[in-house]
Design goal:
Distance between the termini: 14 Å
Mean pLDDT: 86
Bound molecules: adenosine-5'-triphosphate, magnesium ion
Low-confidence stretches: 460-476
Helix content: 40-55%
Number of domains: 4
Shape: globular
CATH topology of the largest domain: Rossmann fold
Largest sheet: 5 strands, parallel
């Protein structure tokens, strides 16, 4: 699914130049925004998305070079085309050194400009596609990334080592944030299929209506919006592994189709009659109580048995004893590197505080707590005072004040998303991350809740890849 190309930003203090660029680019189908100063340009860049900037080197106020430097600093991936008054090697070098992607000397032929713009458009498309593929691909892991020495975690690592090289289906269970995705990544990474594709689908993050076509593909015209034929993700995973995350959030009708696929390896694309076959290994995970879901008729028992060839259960963090401390050290090391800090370790009081907490959000919560603490820490040891006041947080009522709309200059959508995010986070804490209860409390279906959480980047995925995509595909 390709998103439309955002506009080009033109910065030039000469009105005629702006006009002619607008016409030239507009005729080629590009959307254009133009401003007369670098200052305005920077303001617009902060607010809106552009795929490239065309700027004159000489501007009233801030020069094109200064503008370029600022833009590079804040939007390092944004290509900037600099237009200089005359071509001298010195100016060209200066423009390129300042970080321009390209430069043109006046006067230039329209084709020269269009050629440069087309290159930037292509680059943008590739970057987008790459980002999409990155989020669509699962993260391969290895055993050493799974930290933990408590008996349950040692057994788990041994189990992974044993079952990874087989083609057995594995169902990974555990509360939210216990490391299911990490385990799935290790199962693929240690398998014979490790060089082959590893595709992850988050069944909760893709709108229900689109999940089937995402999984099995569709023919052109199969439904409104199916403009082109599209192979399914199972085809993409051919020869490799497919990881169905949040499997319990899949609708009953789709469960039936998945069952058929698991029984004989065949499937049909939506709107198609041709039966297809692929060779994929299937891994699945859920943080829901699957037995309870079967009892409630939400999950097919026959499908459960098909998936549950090997079951790996991740213990909640609060049951892992000294691993809490080990994991804290592990994350401290990681964040020292990424945040360029040099905090040596945790104080005894900090360790004690971590030991006593209940960890409803499990390892993910611990990871976030350590990151936040490291940012706050001013001494060379992580102190208990830099950790959150867990008890106070647990007792906090839902009193979430609406932001004062006059105090913030943000678009309405961003304000609402922020507010929604705070509400969901707060109810999650109160319900100890029991999604069923949270959904009841907010009167949403569980699916809708998971969907919103993914969209708002809440405890769905680790770190940066969560919710970063704009399309349904980019969000798993
Ligand atoms: N044993 C571990 N050692 C090191 N890091 C871990 C461990 N377990 C989990 N993590 C980290 O904690 C975060 C959450 O893990 P993960 O995303 O695998 O949880 P999950 O069980 O899939 O959660 P959810 O059900 O919410 O999707 C990730 O950043 C992951 O790398
Ligand atoms: Mg997960």
């Amino acid at each position: 699914m390709s998103t439309p190309l955002p506009p080009v930003l033109v910065v030039d203090d000469e009105r005629n130049m702006r006009l002619s660029l607008r016409t030239l680019l507009g005729d080629e189908g590009y959307a254009v925004r133009d401003v007369e100063s670098a200052e305005e340009g920077l303001r617009l860049l902060a607010d809106e998305g552009f795929f490239m900037v065309i700027t004159d080197a000489r501007l009233g106020g801030m020069t094109g070079y200064e503008f370029l430097a600022r833009a590079r600093q804040n939007w390092p991936d944004l290509p900037v085309l600099m237009i200089t008054a005359y071509a001298t090697p010195k100016l060209a070098v200066e423009a390129i050194r300042a970080g321009a992607m390209d430069y043109l000397a006046k006067p230039f032929a329209p084709e020269e400009l269009l050629h440069a713009v087309a290159r930037c458009a292509e680059r943008h498309r590739l970057l987008q596609e790459n980002a999409r593929l990155r989020t669509a691909t699962g993260v391969v892991a290895n055993l050493s990334q799974i930290v933990g020495e408590c008996p349950a975690m040692r057994t788990l690592r041994r189990m992974i080592q044993t079952v990874a090289p087989t083609d057995a289906r594995v169902l990974i269970l555990g509360e939210s944030g216990t490391g299911k995705e990490l385990v799935a990544g290790a199962l693929h990474g240690l398998s014979r299929r490790r060089e082959a594709p590893y595709v992850r689908i988050n069944c909760a993050a893709i709108p229900e209506a689109l999940l089937e076509s995402e999984l099995f593909g569709h023919e052109k015209g199969a439904f409104t919006g199916a403009l082109k034929q599209k192979p399914g993700r199972v085809e993409e995973a051919d020869g490799g592994t497919i990881f169905l995350d949040e499997i319990a959030d899949m609708s009953r009708p789709l469960q039936a189709k998945l069952l058929r696929f698991l029984e004989d390896g065949t499937f049909t694309r939506v709107g198609d009659t041709q039966e297809r076959r692929v060779d994929v290994r299937l891994l699945a995970a859920t943080n829901r109580d699957i037995i309870q879901a079967i009892r409630a008729q939400e999950f097919r028992e026959d499908l459960f048995h098909r998936l549950n060839v090997v079951q790996l259960q991740l213990p909640p963090l609060r049951e892992r004893g000294e691993d809490i401390s080990r994991l804290a050290d592990h994350f401290l090391g990681q964040f020292n590197l990424s945040l360029k800090r040099h905090v040596r370790g945790l104080s005894p009081a900090a360790r004690q505080k971590l030991r006593l907490h209940h960890w409803p959000g499990n390892v993910r919560e611990l990871r976030n707590v350590i990151e936040r603490a490291l940012i706050l820490e001013t001494t060379d040891e992580l102190q208990a005072t830099s950790l959150p006041d867990f008890e106070l947080e647990a007792r906090q009522p839902l009193g979430i004040a609406a932001p004062d709309p006059t105090a913030v200059e943000e678009p309405l959508d961003a304000l609402l998303a922020n507010y929604e995010r705070r509400i969901i986070l707060s109810v999650l804490e109160q319900c100890q991350y029991n999604l069923g209860r949270v959904a009841d409390r907010l009167q949403l279906s569980r699916h809708a809740l998971r969907y919103r959480m993914q969209r708002l980047n809440i405890a769905g995925d680790p770190g940066a890849d969560a919710g970063a995509g704009e399309t349904a595909e980019g969000k798993d």
